[in-house]
Task: structure prediction
Amino acid sequence: MSDEDFPVSSSVLTTPRSLVSRAITSIVYALGRTIVLPSYFGDIKILGLEHFPRQGPVVIAPIHRSRWDGLMIGYVFGRPVTQRDPNFMVTANEMQGLQGWLIRQCGGFPINPDQPSVASLRLGVDLLKAEQVLVIFPEGDVKRDRYAQFLKPGFARLALRAQQQLKSGSNIQVLPVALDYGCPIPHWRCGLTITIGRPLNVSEYKGPVKPASLLLINDLKKALNNLMDCPRPSTTLPTVSQFSPLKVIFGRQAAHHRR
Result:
């Protein structure tokens, strides 16, 4: 797919608000916080939430190591914690049946990571133009390697195209997020450390889209892998079972992205 396949155009349908059903997600997140996650996992530690932008367009770009990742991202960045509604680009094969319906209610929409449709890319651009939060797993699907090896170029092109269409003074922030389960395949009672890095400012990647997207991809991969190398904290932070539905206390981390 070329850079011109989702052009800069006023004819592109804008999406003025999130795709999320707040009624459904409030139930899903409450069940996740109070029953599902504390029943399955051990300690869950969240570091670096201070890096999350409280306003403006955001691309949350997590490393992808488990089918649990989507729920974890919603748990960390959902409205009860950030007062914002994350929307999700989800691989098309996960959008079937009841699961697909539930994912849609939680802000998910399908995309083929190998051959993304123009409609899916345009929807992603429109959400960012509307200054929403968009979750894109840049590896495309679950990988078992500890470190990110290859990131799909589509997410970077999408972010750059959306940046070109934003009003002056508004910048898209790409937020690297590492999820470390401590093992290749998460198992019952395993722990999890979620480390959030400093955001990358898309407006700094100037010039033609193709070389700019390669720079953005390389910087994001470096940031993700640096976060995976961060030592786990020696002190135990509050676990999921200790989190109030209305207030969550997170730890801070000193991991910084290096350009």
Observations:
- Confidence is low (pLDDT under 50) at residues 7-16, 234-250, 253-259.
- Helices lie at 22-40, 69-77, 79-82, 97-105, 118-129, 153-165, 209-228.
- The beta strands are 44-47, 58-62, 86-91, 108-111, 133-135, 173-180, 192-196, 200-201.
- The CA atoms of residues 94 and 131 lie 26 Å apart.
